[in-house]
């Protein structure tokens, strides 16, 4: 597979914020390998043209490099790292934010023979595969439209559908197909994920969240673990600790106040879990982060793209 034109297009159009003139299309250029950093995955297709990345989700680790793509069908708390990047050979990536409405439209237009059966259980929220040449070709044609402003409005939606179709019918299609089915197991869990993320400071009973999601408690536990690689309580803890770390950068002296604001009743429990997650007590980690922020460094890029 020749990735030369893909690399050239990404390198030419990459901007610090990764956005492009085409809605939902992202490109990134990262010139330095990075330390593992917490982030939210977003719901995205990420294709690597050059370099390599490592993503940790719960107890699962995903690695993908040039010519491979990762699909994230749920917005999940992850730890991401660029492991192969330098000024002479930067990491180059393409991203497409997944639009459930477009996926649903494609599934409605397809015949049963066109699309493999989705299955009843929820798939993992992430999956990695080698990119077929048809998918890479469609991505290249999408990025060519960045140089063709007259054609973008008419052609970009068509190429987006082609990219999604290649993924829907490909090796990891089950991950994406369930995103377009309103009553799929994946979407039941996605609703629970959104609720926990929006109410992360609140204690909750798993039975109540399962009821809100519209599935039985036993199916909820099983599918939540399959999608997120975590239990609901572990998921909430990840969100709390990530939010606390963001707050500590601007309020490093308020460890106790931040621990309460993110939902911890016990500052000592917060400090133990924070150190276990990030390797340092909250106050020391905050000082390190503030020092790094004062040093010249490349702008951070999202973990997947």
UniProtKB/TrEMBL annotation:
GO terms for molecular function: DNA-binding transcription factor activity; sequence-specific DNA binding. It comes from the Bacteria. The keyword Plastid does not apply. Gene3D superfamilies: Homeodomain-like. Residues 190-288 form the HTH araC/xylS-type domain. Keywords: DNA-binding, Transcription, Transcription regulation. InterPro entries: Homeodomain-like_sf (IPR009057), HTH_AraC (IPR018060), HTH_AraC-typ_CS (IPR018062), Tscrpt_reg_HTH_AraC_N (IPR009594). The keyword Transcription regulation applies. This is AraC-type DNA-binding protein. It comes from Parafrankia irregularis.
């Amino acid at each position: 597979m020749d990735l030369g034109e893909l690399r050239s297009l990404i390198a030419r159009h990459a901007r610090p914020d990764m956005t492009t003139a085409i809605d939902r299309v992202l490109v990134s250029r990262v010139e330095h390998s990075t330390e593992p950093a917490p982030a939210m995955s977003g719901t995205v297709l990420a294709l690597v043209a050059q370099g390599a990345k490592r993503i940790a989700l719960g107890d699962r680790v995903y690695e993908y490099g040039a010519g491979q793509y990762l699909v994230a069908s749920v917005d999940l708390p992850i730890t991401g790292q660029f492991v192969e990047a330098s000024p002479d050979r930067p990491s180059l990536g393409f991203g497409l934010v997944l639009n459930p409405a477009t996926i649903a439209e494609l599934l409605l237009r397809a015949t049963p023979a066109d699309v493999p059966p989705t299955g009843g259980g929820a798939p993992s929220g992430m999956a990695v595969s080698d990119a077929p040449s048809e998918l890479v070709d469609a991505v290249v044609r999408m990025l060519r439209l960045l140089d063709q402003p007259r054609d973008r409005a008419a052609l970009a939606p068509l190429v987006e559908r082609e990219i999604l179709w290649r993924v829907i019918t490909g090796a990891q299609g089950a991950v994406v197909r369930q995103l377009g089915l309103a009553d799929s197991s994946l979407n039941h869990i996605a609703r629970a994920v959104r609720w926990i993320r929006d109410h992360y400071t609140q204690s909750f009973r798993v039975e109540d969240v399962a009821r809100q999601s519209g599935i039985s408690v036993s199916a909820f536990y099983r599918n939540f673990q399959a999608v997120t690689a975590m239990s609901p309580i572990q998921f909430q803890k990840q969100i709390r600790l990530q939010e606390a770390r963001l707050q500590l950068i601007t309020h490093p002296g308020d460890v106790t106040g931040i621990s309460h604001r993110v939902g911890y009743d016990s500052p000592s429990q917060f400090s133990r879990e924070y150190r276990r997650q990030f390797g340092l007590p909250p106050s020391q980690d905050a000082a390190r982060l503030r020092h790094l922020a004062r040093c010249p460094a490349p702008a951070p890029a999202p973990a997947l793209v």
